[in-house]
């Protein structure tokens, strides 16, 4: 049986979301719907449906009679979100530790080796991609759809800022050591320790962002 095609507005939402994460559409920017329609080769109807979806995700803000603006993430947002995401991903690490298999370990070994290579090369973009995939792998291993959904909702917002923290002095290597320590604890089978280690790892990300000056943040392309 043929798979159903993805609705056009979902495809457009993915394209606009990618523009936001890439920094092409900057925080606080008013979207030019006409220009976006031309750029994405779509009509106003699927674009507006896509924008409604992104508003519901928290990536855009709609203002009556003005239009849609790219949402900005504030210090207050980060202070509120990081403790929550730390709790959620900590629980995911707890559940994943109890379910990890030898086959899972073979895959995760390779992923952590690649993570180390990106860190040694100073490749922040490559490190971020692999870091994201490892977190996703832990969430998948946890096999809790409600937990996964809650984490995904918050990660969409945090993705606006999480890459920035890897540019803080010394953060890339510190992040790597935290990941390797977490993985070692998971392999030991200590679920409680894995939960706490993951929480600490996420909270260190917030501290790294706090160490960055407003000027350095403004120069970063997400």
From TrEMBL:
Residues 6-73 form the HTH gntR-type domain. GO terms for molecular function: DNA binding; DNA-binding transcription factor activity. CDD domains: WHTH_GntR (cd07377). PANTHER family: TRANSCRIPTIONAL REGULATOR, GNTR FAMILY, TRANSCRIPTIONAL REGULATORY PROTEIN. InterPro entries: GntR_C, TF_FadR/GntR_C, Tscrpt_reg_HTH_GntR, WH-like_DNA-bd_sf, WH_DNA-bd_sf. It comes from the Bacteria. This is GntR family transcriptional regulator. It comes from Comamonas piscis. Keywords: DNA-binding, Transcription, Transcription regulation. It holds the Pfam family FCD.
